Amino acid sequence: MEEKVYSQNNNIRKMVYASMFAAMMAVGAYIEIPVPISPVPITLQTLFILMAGAMLGARWGTISVLVYLLLGIAGLPVFSGGSSGLGMFFGPTGGYLIGFVLGAFVIGSLCDRYGREKIHFNVLFMLVGLFVIYLLGILQLMNIASLSLTEALALGLLPFIPGSILKVLAASIITSRYTI
Fold first, then answer.
1. To which H or E segment does residue 89 belong?
2. Which of 61, 108, 113, 141 has its CA 20 to 30 A from that of 122?
């Protein structure tokens, strides 16, 4: 009986944390840093996606991203620039949104398997997760906007590398120091 109560409390705690990360992703989408060579600004939503995957693990990190995306699909203006709706998944940046789910899952799976206490492992795991996010984003950008790989990389990856590196470092440090 006591074990069942602990399990229920632990699940409730994970649900609360997943909800909090979904809320932080929504807020992070509004924190924009303009990039002079790109029409798309850097946002902090990916910082919270990286942290959700690492801190909550594969299951709950993925659930937190799905909750965030469902809020946007439902019409709440939680995506970058206050956008929302199912149509966002079919536009040029839709691949990144889909990549958020898989990226969080990959990061969470790696952290679940190898641990999240060491910064250098967290950096590696988050870089792998970001690779997944950027891969899906670039592929959809190429498809929807009829861009070559070079053009898509120039628009959808290169301007964001410095910000992504800073987000990975910050998320790795935070994740290695705090446990949920």
1. none
2. 141
